[in-house]
């Protein structure tokens, strides 16, 4: 198990710059080259998963196909969706069209190819041709899954599929057309608009999160990544704790995660509400900055008490090397910015053969 403060595989982009890679993504890429898979469904946004974009792009192509001169689709072009969602829709469509161009024919469902299934739904969405007066969005989605074996075999993709299905099921409760595609016009176009607005747009706007609780246990044949908060109450034979893979310099915007120089928002809120609670005076007996340090200490205590046999700390060298200059609670720096491991030695160290085994470790 790998534990970290956050398991995001990419940092956020800034002013048009693309997101940069983090340790979980680099680790996933390196291990995949050696035939080892990772389980980190929370590491990337749903909208950025290639398989999710491919299947949702196919759904868009079924309901509102792109046309020459109108790559966004007739219905999407006239809708009020965010610029970010419109950009994600275009990327999804490109992935779906590229997938259709490969003519996937390894699976034939009821005598139909994927191209024929997409064409059948297009006829229903555009002209109302086909059986049935209404069809749930989930029927459109599940008709496409036989050509997406990852959603049936891969644990991560099953978590992604649950998030998409949950979004469609919730839309059935509050959406104006209950996530149904109606055959008769004018309701046909309006029902498609409702599906795009209430199901696809929230995913494209990164408003839908995965639910890892649907997995009764973490897959044992994969390297699992968890946040430290997720790992409470669990134990593993080997635990790797990422304490400083993001810290290469003493940047003030990172100090709250390793060595805060000002109170955290949580402790400030406690100070404001202390007068309104009977235990407020007990909680504020220590200063806000002291409580901020204590919260970090408790966090890393949880991480360090998860292993059954081996604990390994990983990160960038400025926080790990002996001559480091970046203070970090996780490496036992004191709040007065002293570090016991770097205290000057008194006299000569004993010979290597006479040292205690724990000292060598």
TrEMBL record:
Keywords for the protein's UniProt record, in alphabetical order: ATP-binding, Exonuclease, Helicase, Hydrolase, Nuclease, Nucleotide-binding
Pfam families: UvrD_C
Coiled-coil residues: none
Ranges where the UvrD-like helicase C-terminal domain occurs: 206-314
Gene3D superfamilies for the chain: P-loop containing nucleotide triphosphate hydrolases
Domain of life, per lineage: Bacteria
Protein name in the entry: DNA 3'-5' helicase II
Organism: Stigmatella ashevillensis
Nuclease listed as a keyword: yes
Any one GO molecular function term: exonuclease activity
